[in-house]
Design brief:
The complex is a heterodimer. Chain A has four helices and seven strands. By secondary structure, chain A is an alpha+beta fold. In chain A, strands 1-7-6-5-4-3-2 form a seven-stranded antiparallel β-sheet. The longest helix of chain A is centred in the C-terminal third of the chain and has 21 residues. The radius of gyration of chain A is 15 Å and the shape is globular. Chain B is α+β, with helices and mostly antiparallel strands. Chain B folds into three domains: 183 residues, Aldehyde Oxidoreductase, domain 3 (Alpha-Beta Complex), CATH 3.90.1170; 326 residues, 2-Layer Sandwich (Aldehyde Oxidoreductase, domain 4), CATH 3.30.365.10; 147 residues, 2-Layer Sandwich (Aldehyde Oxidoreductase, domain 4), CATH 3.30.365. Chain B is 29% helix and 23% strand. Chain B has 21 helices and 26 strands. In chain B, the strands form six sheets. Chain B has a seven-stranded mixed β-sheet with strand order 3-5-1-12-9-10-11, with helices on both faces. A five-stranded mixed β-sheet of chain B has the order 7-15-14-13-8. In chain B, helix 11 packs across helix 12 and helix 11 packs parallel to helix 20. Chain B is globular and about 85 Å long. In chain B, 57% of the residues are buried. Classes of the chains: A alpha+beta, B alpha+beta.
Chain lengths: 150, 789
């Protein structure tokens, strides 16, 4: 499944980049996640547990989050592999930042590809697109809240 | 016998309905036992994977969990048997285990089980099991699965071919096609369907260690066969060690015939743990783990003369059988499909080639109609394609090719020795056309087209095969069925004259308790209220093969009828003795025995039953009691037929199809209860129309079922349909003394092509000659926009 979207941060590119690379900030922003625990011996890789409360997707999930293809401060790839609800969820997103100096805004755009197997694939397929959009918006909204106050 | 004729054939209300509609009937879910545990099954989220390891330790420690097992814990339990393998060819058999051990070939295969004090705990603990998989590439399309480079599912099945089977004559068919005036070719998809009974599957097993005996309750259409397969094949114990009970079963449509891993798993769990264990399928499990139906990719070639005479039919089919074989999977797209491809027509040359193929999808097996809907779809579409090609009326092409009444019994050759029993195909067609007002309709259609409205009419003149039996024909020497297919019945007239019938058939919505009682009441000349029909418990009923293939009346009830004749003979002997008359002078009429011509001096069946039970004075050598058991193996199958007509209007703007009229003329032989037959026909039409217009299982390329819930899988609703216009002709079968053929599947078999033919007819002005099912508004809309026809 292909998912694309974007979110506009009212901040400069470096600030947004730092925020997007900060595991604590990300942990706070993912609905239901408490913390990201670094995986020993692997760079930019964290283990996470999440509790999701969205329609057919509701339940506990556990997984690994990895950042790669990092080109500060313009793009990186986020790869997530998780399981829960008798389902396996795999996804990768290429995240790109574009700065608009006139308005001092940074646009974050993502192109994501998700593979879903098991119960959720057959139960919630039609809801997943909508669910992912809602959750992405929520995620970036929560991240934006953590921007340093100007 | 006046009274008999009155009861047999009358529209009495179903006797089972009061308990069903008041909620008093006990389904599997209603059964509670002391100490009952609940099982939940962990199912593979991958369509094709190796299981590298399973860690159950966390789940085992979860409060309320009694035990957690994986496949290796049941390595001593045999895989499920495949009881119907295609006849006279090699079958590359792979069947499910109670839990898969190291490999899964479809999403939904069971790999671990949690047993807990309650169902919620069991379900929660599933989340705590960790499985390490090596995910393998998947293939879901049966044709692609046979091509080189496709992922291979099983070592013993090169190119994923489970079975390759043919019927008919290839050379003669090829020659006839070469010599034909016209040859029409068409590729057609008969899409996968998911049976959706109101009640999902379930099972409770209770093992008694002291006697090493099981009692197993399950939602089965064939409890005796389940007992045989579980004991003799899966557990390797005598069948006397198990009692199988089907409680009230809430619909099956074929999907509840089979021996599923979960039933054997419950039996194995109960034996391991020493407490009764219950599993009740959720609706999402039902979609991924219960068998599906149909799923054919077919290429056809039809040869015809200019006048519409069909001279040859060549069919090549890829039948998707899923990741492993269900109990009778190979028999459906072979015997029950290929052998019925002549339809209601004289077709001198037929050749059918079938690949039964493994793919990374759920198991496919019999679903209402089982093979005959697929065959009827092919032949009824083929006739319309010929008519279209030659510019002939589809009704005229049907008439031209019909097997005439005087040709019966008719041998279509591809039936491998059986003959169509009786038929008056044109009579049923004529009645349907009269109800439609065909000539007027064509005028109305032409008029509507001028106004930009698109009406269409579709015909389906079908024949199907019911009362599936002759053991010698269907069995191992013939069509490969791994058993016999006779049926049994016991009739007992108790001291008070009340009658108890036990039968090996199983009723899960068909109304056997009513129709069988009608036959008993009619034959014995007693009230229907004095008859009780018992079924569905291996303790107390004689062995029977169960209910499917519309065989309970044409085979099972004939066994009842035969016992009734023997009971009447004995009653006559005893009645004569009581009347002090010679046995050859008495007759049995309207429930009484009397000397021919002197009905005033008579003994009632109740008096005779009492005398037989008390046995104070019996004729020399006569045993007490009126009690008889019959085993009936018919000499032939029965072949119901008819014509269905569908009238549709297609909305030009939206592509929506509105069913304006639906006419069904069915000939199911003699009818015991017209109301029950109509109910069966109505339900069947709904399921068949749904395939044509709405239903369809969809897997993505990774083998994930995308239509896995009632939100995503289209089930028709009552307001999708007009009032059905049904009638019937009655051509008794000479095969059995009741003259009955079978009525459980005609609606599903006939309706699908009638609807597609109607939609194609409506879209004829747009150059459409074929569309694949389901014919949904988006597909039609694209055709109307001029792309995708």
């Amino acid at each position: 499944m292909e998912l694309t979207g974007s979110y506009l941060f009212e901040a400069d590119q470096d600030t947004v980049w730092k925020l997007l690379m900060d595991p604590d900030a990300i942990a706070k922003a993912i609905p239901g996640v408490k913390e990201l625990i670094p995986v020993e011996g692997e760079e930019l890789t964290w283990r996470a547990a999440a509790k999701v409360g969205f329609a057919a997707l509701s339940g506990h999930y556990a997984g690994v989050i990895k950042m790669s293809e990092v080109e500060a401060p313009t793009q990186y790839r986020l790869t997530v592999n998780g399981e829960g609800q008798q389902s396996v969820i795999g996804g990768t997103a290429l995240i790109k930042l574009t700065f608009n100096p006139e308005k001092n805004e940074t646009l974050v755009h993502w192109d994501a590809h998700a593979n879903i197997s098991g119960k959720i694939a057959s139960l919630g397929q039609r809801l997943i697109g909508a669910g992912a959009n809602v959750m992405s918006k929520q995620f970036f909204h929560e991240l934006a809240k953590q921007l340093p106050t100007r | 016998m006046a009274a008999a004729e009155k009861i047999i054939g009358s529209r009495i209300k179903r006797r089972e309905d009061p308990r069903l509609i008041t909620g008093e009937a006990k389904y599997l879910e209603d059964i509670q036992l002391p100490g009952l545990l609940h099982a939940a099954i962990l199912r593979s989220p991958h369509a094709h994977a190796k299981i590298k390891s399973i860690d159950t330790s966390k789940a085992a420690k979860h409060p309320g969990v009694v035990a957690v097992y994986a496949g290796k814990d049941f390595a001593d339990v045999n895989p499920m048997p495949c009881a119907w393998q295609a006849g006279k060819v090699k079958n590359n058999v792979n069947t499910p285990r109670v839990l898969e051990i190291d490999r899964v070939t479809f999403t939904g295969a069971g790999i671990a089980v949690v047993v807990a004090e309650d169902r919620y705990t069991a379900q929660d603990a599933l989340e705590l099991i960790h499985v390490d998989y090596e995910v393998l590439p998947a293939v879901v399309d049966a044709e692609k699965a046979t091509k080189s480079g496709a992922p291979q599912l099983h070592e013993n099945a090169p190119n994923n071919i489970a079975v390759e089977w043919t019927c008919g004559t290839q050379d003669a068919t090829d020659r006839a096609l070469k010599e034909a005036d016209v040859v029409v070719k068409q590729r057609m998809i008969n899409q996968r369907l998911i049976p959706t009974p109101m009640e999902t599957r379930g099972c409770i097993a209770q093992y008694q260690a002291a006697t090493e005996e099981w009692t197993v309750w399950m939602t089965s259409q064939a409890p005796h066969v389940m007992r045989l397969l579980m004991t003799a094949f899966v557990f390797g114990v005598p069948e006397t060690k198990m009692r199988v009970i089907s409680p009230q079963v809430g619909g099956g449509f074929g999907a509840k015939i089979f021996l599923y891993p979960e039933y054997c798993l419950m039996a194995a769990l109960s034996r391991k743990i020493g407490r009764p264990v219950k599993w009740m399928e959720t609706r999402s499990e039902n979609y991924i783990a219960t068998t599906h139906g149909r799923d054919h990719i077919t290429e056809i070639e039809v040869g015809a003369k200019r006048d519409g005479t069909i001279t040859a039919l060549k069919v090549n089919t890829y039948a998707n059988l899923g990741g492993v074989l269900s109990t009778i999977a190979p028999g459906i797209p072979t015997t029950l499909y290929g052998r019925m491809l002549s339809g209601t027509y004289r077709i001198p040359n037929i050749f059918c080639h079938v690949y039964g193929v493994y793919t990374n999808t759920g198991m496919v097996d019999a679903y209402r109609g089982a093979g005959r809907p697929e065959a009827t779809y092919v032949i009824e579409r083929a006739v319309d394609l010929v008519a279209h090609e030659l510019g002939l009326d589809p009704v005229a092409v049907r008439r031209k090719n019909f097997i005439p009444p005087e040709a019966f019994p008719y041998d279509p050759v591809i039936l491998n020795g059986l003959k169509y029993d009786s038929g008056q195909y044109e009579k049923a067609l004529d009645l349907a056309l009269k109800m439609l007002g065909y000539e007027n309709f064509r005028k109305e259609q032409a008029e509507a087209r001028k106004q930009g409205r698109y009406l269409g009419v579709g015909f389906s003149s079908y024949v199907e095969i019911c009362g599936v039996a002759p053991s010698a024909w269907i069995g191992l020497p013939g069509e490969g069925w791994g058993a016999g297919l006779w049926e049994s019945a016991n009739v007992r007239v108790h001291l008070t004259g009340k009658v108890v019938v036990t039968t090996g058939s199983q009723s899960h919505g068909q109304g056997h308790e009513t129709s069988v009682a009608q036959v008993v009441a009619g034959e014995l000349g007693i009230s229907v209220d004095d008859v009780i029909v018992q079924h569905s418990d291996t303790l107390g009923t004689p062995f029977g093969y169960g209910t499917y293939g519309s065989r309970s009346t044409a085979v099972g009830t004939v066994a009842v009828y035969n016992s009734l004749q023997k009971i009447k003979e004995k009653a006559k002997l005893l009645g004569a003795h009581m009347l002090e008359a010679a046995p050859e002078d008495v007759v049995y009429e309207d429930g009484k025995v009397f000397v021919k011509g002197s009905p005033d001096q008579s003994k009632t069946i109740q008096e005779i039953a009492g005398a037989a039970a008390l046995a104070y004075s019996l004729p020399a050598g006569m045993e007490p009691f009126l009690d008889n058991t019959s085993y009936y193996d018919p000499p032939n199958c029965t072949f119901p037929f008819g014509t269905h007509i569908c009238v549709v209007e297609v909305d030009k703007e939206s592509g929506e199809v509105k069913i304006k009229r639906y006419i069904a003329i069915d000939d199911v032989g003699k009818v015991i209860n017209p109301m029950i037959v109509e109910g069966q026909v109505h339900g069947g039409i709904v399921q068949g129309v749904a395939q044509a217009l709405w239903e369809g299982a969809v897997y993505d390329d990774n083998g994930q079922l995308l239509t896995g819930s009632l939100m995503d899988y289209a089930i028709p609703k009552a307001d999708f349909f007009p009032t059905f216009e049904t009638d019937r002709t009655e051509t008794p079968t000479p095969v059995n003394p009741l003259g009955v053929k079978g009525a459980g599947e005609t609606g599903t078999i006939a309706s699908t092509p009638a609807v597609v033919n109607a939609v194609v007819d409506a879209l004829a002005p747009f150059g459409v000659k074929h569309m694949d099912m389901p014919v949904t508004p988006p597909k039609i809309w694209r055709v109307l926009q001029g792309n995708g026809g």
